[in-house]
C-alpha cells in the first residue's frame, strides 16, 4: 500500500498514464461518428453544441480512467498487482488527491452537460446522468459492476450507442425523445420510436467493438482478476470458451453495419468497411494464439480502430462527395 508520509508528485507523464491518454482514441470514434452522422441523416450540425459535448465527453473519458485506477488500488488483493501494475501504488500517489483531481474534471463535464440540457431538452439530463452513474459504479461501491459479468454489457452500449445517441441528439431539430411541460403540471414523455431504433442500430457496431476491447482486456487479465477477486465474464465462461467466442464479436459488429445499410440508415459506401476483413481476421488470429496484455491485446484495439475509424472516414468522404 502507499505510504501516506511519502506520496509522489503527479507529473505530466504520470498524469497522462493516469488518464490512459493513448486509449482515448477509441473513445473518440463514436463521438466523431455521432457528429458526422447527424449531418448525414438529419442535415444539421450545431457547432456550439458539438464543441461543448466534445469537451464534456472527453472530460468524462479522462475521469473514468483516473477514477478506475484509484478504485482498483483500493480493492486490490494481489501484492504483485499493487507493486508492478497499479499506477497509484507503483508511483506512490495520494489516492485522495487523485480522486479530487478526477472529480474536478468530472465537475467540468457536468457543468457543460447542464448547458447542453438548457440548449436541448430535459431528457438529456436523465440520459447523461445515467451514463455518469454507470461510469462511477463501474468500479465504485460495495459490488462494482467491473467485478461482475456486466462490464461488456454496460460499457459498450454506454460508450458506443450512448455517445452516438447524444452526439446526434444535440444536433437534431426533431428529437428522438423529449420531456415537455404543459399547464396544470402536465408532463409528456415523447418518444419517436423509428428515430430511436435508427440511432441504436447504427450505434451497435461501435458498442460491440467497445465491448470487444473490454472482453479481450478481461481475458488477458483473467488470472490477475481472480487474485483481486474480480469475476468478469471470461471467468464465468472459462478462458477456453471465452477465446472461442472472441471472433464472433467483430463479426457481429460488421453484421449490424450491413443491416443498417440494408435498411437505409447508412450509405452503401459503408460496406467498404468489409474490405478490411482480412486485417480484422489477422488480428483476431493473433489474439487467439496468445492472450497477453503486453504483446497481443493491442490487436483488439486495432480492430476497433479499423471498423470504427473506417465508418467515420467513409461517412466524412461521402458527405464531401455528395
TrEMBL record:
Q: Where in the cell is it found?
A: Membrane
Q: Name one GO biological process term.
A: menaquinone biosynthetic process
GO cellular component annotations of the record: membrane
Record keywords: Membrane, Menaquinone biosynthesis, Transferase, Transmembrane, Transmembrane helix
Report the membrane topology from the UniProt record: Multi-pass membrane protein
The protein's matches in CDD domains, at most eight in alphabetical order, are given as:
PT_UbiA_UBIAD1 (cd13962)
Q: Does the keyword Transferase apply?
A: yes
User: Is this entry keyworded Membrane?
Assistant: yes
Instruction: Output one GO MF annotation.
Output: prenyltransferase activity
Q: Which pathway is it part of?
A: Quinol/quinone metabolism; menaquinone biosynthesis
What name goes with this protein? Answer: Putative prenyltransferase protein
Amino acid at each position: 500500500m502507499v505510504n501516506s508520509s511519502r506520496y509522489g508528485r503527479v507529473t505530466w507523464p504520470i498524469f497522462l498514464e493516469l488518464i490512459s491518454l493513448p486509449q482515448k482514441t477509441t473513445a473518440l470514434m463514436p463521438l466523431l461518428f455521432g457528429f458526422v452522422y447527424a449531418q448525414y441523416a438529419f442535415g444539421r450540425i450545431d457547432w456550439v453544441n458539438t464543441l461543448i459535448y466534445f469537451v464534456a465527453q472527453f472530460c468524462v473519458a479522462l475521469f473514468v480512467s483516473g477514477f478506475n485506477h484509484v478504485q482498483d488500488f483500493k480493492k486490490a488483493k494481489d501484492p504483485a498487482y499493487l507493486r508492478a501494475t497499479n499506477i497509484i501504488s507503483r508511483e506512490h500517489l495520494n489516492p485522495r488527491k487523485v480522486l479530487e483531481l478526477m472529480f474536478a474534471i468530472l465537475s467540468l463535464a457536468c457543468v457543460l452537460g447542464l448547458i447542453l440540457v438548457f440548449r436541448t431538452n430535459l431528457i438529456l439530463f436523465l440520459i447523461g446522468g445515467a451514463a455518469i452513474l454507470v461510469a462511477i459504479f463501474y468500479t465504485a461501491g460495495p459490488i462494482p459492476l467491473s467485478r461482475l459479468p456486466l462490464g461488456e454489457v454496460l460499457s459498450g452500449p454506454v460508450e458506443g450507442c450512448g455517445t452516438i445517441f447524444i452526439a446526434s441528439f444535440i444536433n437534431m431539430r426533431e428529437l428522438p425523445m423529449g420531456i415537455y411541460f404543459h399547464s396544470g403540471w402536465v408532463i409528456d414523455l415523447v418518444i419517436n420510436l423509428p428515430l430511436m431504433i435508427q440511432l441504436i442500430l447504427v450505434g451497435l457496431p461501435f458498442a460491440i467493438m467497445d465491448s470487444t476491447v473490454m472482453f479481450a482486456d478481461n481475458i488477458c487479465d483473467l488470472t490477475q482478476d481472480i487474485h483481486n477477486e474480480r469475476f468478469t465474464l471470461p471467468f464465468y465462461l472459462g478462458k477456453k470458451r471465452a477465446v472461442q467466442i472472441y471472433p464472433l464479436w467483430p463479426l457481429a459488429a460488421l453484421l449490424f453495419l450491413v443491416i443498417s445499410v440494408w435498411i437505409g440508415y447508412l450509405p452503401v459506401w459503408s460496406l467498404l468497411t468489409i474490405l478490411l476483413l482480412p486485417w480484422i481476421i489477422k488480428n483476431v488470429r493473433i489474439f487467439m494464439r496468445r492472450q497477453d496484455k503486453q504483446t497481443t491485446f493491442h490487436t483488439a484495439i486495432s480492430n476497433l480502430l479499423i471498423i470504427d475509424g473506417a465508418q467515420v472516414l467513409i461517412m466524412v468522404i461521402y458527405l464531401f462527395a455528395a
